[in-house]
């Protein structure tokens, strides 16, 4: 089956708690439901929106965390990736931004689009050390080093 090509410019939001852990979502591609993975919050920019504005909007839509664009730090890297999702062959420019959140932050999927609700099954806070030692699949593969850059953490002890 031929996939529909799609080019996206995305902002990835990295909420970080007071224990230097990043919030990730757990879900799956509807075309491959038996291959779940962990991924960062974020999505494509909308008309006239900056990457930082898109990151702030996506934080609210995907996990219910409200932030103004100027509260986000970064960017912490930019990369271009290619992957398949559902009927699409996606080429994605992605830029990462961080937001420090308090211990009282509440995660909610209430504002997700239906397809996101249908394919997102959980969330979890991850430390850089946990990312480096897990056998679970997560994206991007270099997330532990991005998290260490943001938090000022060194390498493994």
Kindly describe this structure.
It contains four helices and eight strands; from the N terminus they run ββββαββαβαβα. With 157 residues, it is α/β, with parallel strands linked by helices. The chain has a single domain (4-150), classed as Nucleoside Triphosphate Pyrophosphohydrolase (Alpha-Beta Complex), CATH 3.90.79.10. A four-stranded mixed beta sheet has the order 4-1-6-5. The chain has a four-stranded mixed beta sheet with strand order 7-2-3-8. A hairpin with a 2-residue loop joins strand 2 (22-29) and strand 3. The chain is globular and about 45 Å long. The model has no long low-confidence stretch (mean pLDDT 94).
Give the helix level as a range of percent. 10-25%
Per DSSP, the total helix count is: 4
- Which stretches are low in confidence, meaning pLDDT under 50 for 5 or more residues running? none
CATH class: Alpha Beta
Structural class: alpha/beta
Name the CATH superfamily assignment: Nucleoside Triphosphate Pyrophosphohydrolase
Strand segment count: 8
CATH topology: Nucleoside Triphosphate Pyrophosphohydrolase
Organism: Nonomuraea jabiensis
Keywords: Hydrolase, Magnesium
Cofactor: Mg(2+)
InterPro entries: Nudix_hydrolase, NUDIX_hydrolase-like_dom_sf, NUDIX_hydrolase_CS, NUDIX_hydrolase_dom
Summary of the model, kept short:
The protein is α/β, with parallel strands linked by helices and 157 residues long.
Question: Layout of helices and strands, plus pairs?
Answer:
Elements: E1 4-16, E2 22-29, E3 32-39, E4 41-44, H1 51-63, E5 78-85, E6 88-100, H2 114-119, E7 120-126, H3 128-133, E8 138-139, H4 143-151
Family: Belongs to the Nudix hydrolase family.
Pfam families: NUDIX
Organism: Nonomuraea jabiensis
């Amino acid at each position: 089956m031929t996939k529909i090509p799609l080019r996206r410019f995305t902002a990835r939001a990295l909420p970080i708690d007071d224990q230097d852990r990043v919030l990730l979502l757990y879900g799956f591609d509807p075309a491959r439901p038996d291959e779940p993975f962990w991924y960062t919050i974020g999505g494509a920019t909308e008309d006239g929106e900056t990457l930082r504005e898109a990151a702030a909007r996506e934080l609210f839509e995907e996990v219910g965390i409200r932030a103004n664009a100027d509260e986000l730090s970064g960017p912490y890297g930019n990369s271009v990736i290619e992957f398949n999702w559902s009927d699409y062959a996606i080429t994605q420019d992605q830029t990462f931004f961080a937001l420090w959140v308090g211990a009282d932050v509440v995660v909610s999927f209430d504002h997700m689009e239906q397809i996101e609700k249908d394919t997102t099954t959980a969330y979890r806070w991850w430390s850089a050390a946990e990312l480096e030692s897990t056998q679970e699949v997560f994206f991007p593969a270099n997330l532990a080093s991005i998290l260490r850059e943001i938090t000022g953490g060194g390498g493994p002890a």
